[in-house]
Specification:
This protein is an alpha+beta fold. The protein is built from 4 helices and 6 strands; from the N terminus they run H-H-E-E-E-H-E-E-E-H. Strand 2 and strand 3 form a beta hairpin. It holds the Pfam family GAF.
Length: 159
């Protein structure tokens, strides 16, 4: 059974706690879509100052919308396009302090000002990305990147 936990520690301690919550949520569950749905809900509850959090799943050379929390979103994004497609193509996290300065940014939600996208890599292949948007600039930093990459590693290990 999942119980909401209050996050009163340092940012690092809080991220460690949310990663433990993720492990508990997905323990024994083999359905990846179900795990992504709970993961997006968990991050939506945990992270402050965000307006969209969710996953895109690789299908050929494009990303297709998966489980998320937020307003309706772009359904398909080609590899190499926008922040999500760039992270997928390059297989590395994209931390964007101001989306309006990112060449080729795809504006699914006009309120988004900053974004972080973490690729999900299994056996050297991108299987999807974690995408998080914020309505404020400079929302994400190195701490977010480090712990969100750990969060994604836990998810990918469940596949």
């Amino acid at each position: 059974m999942f119980h909401a936990i209050s996050y009163n520690g340092t940012r690092e301690e809080n991220y460690e706690l949310v990663i433990k919550q993720l492990q508990a949520l997905i323990d024994g569950e083999t359905n990846f879509i179900a795990n992504l749905a709970n993961a997006s809900a968990l991050l939506n509850q945990f992270l402050k100052n965000i307006n969209w959090v969710g996953f895109y799943l690789a299908e050929g050379e494009q990303l297709v919308l998966g489980p998320f929390q937020g307003l309706p979103a772009c359904v398909r994004i080609p590899f190499g396009k926008g922040v999500c497609g760039t992270a997928a193509k390059n297989q590395k996290t994209e931390l964007v302090p101001d989306v309006h300065l990112f060449p080729g940014h795809i504006a699914c939600d006009a309120a988004s000002q900053s974004e972080i996208v973490v690729p999900m890599i299994k056996n050297g292949n991108v299987i999807g990305v974690l995408d998080i948007d914020s309505p404020i600039k400079n929302r994400f930093d190195d701490i977010d990147q480090r712990y969100l990459e750990k969060f994604v590693e836990v998810l990918v290990a469940s596949v």
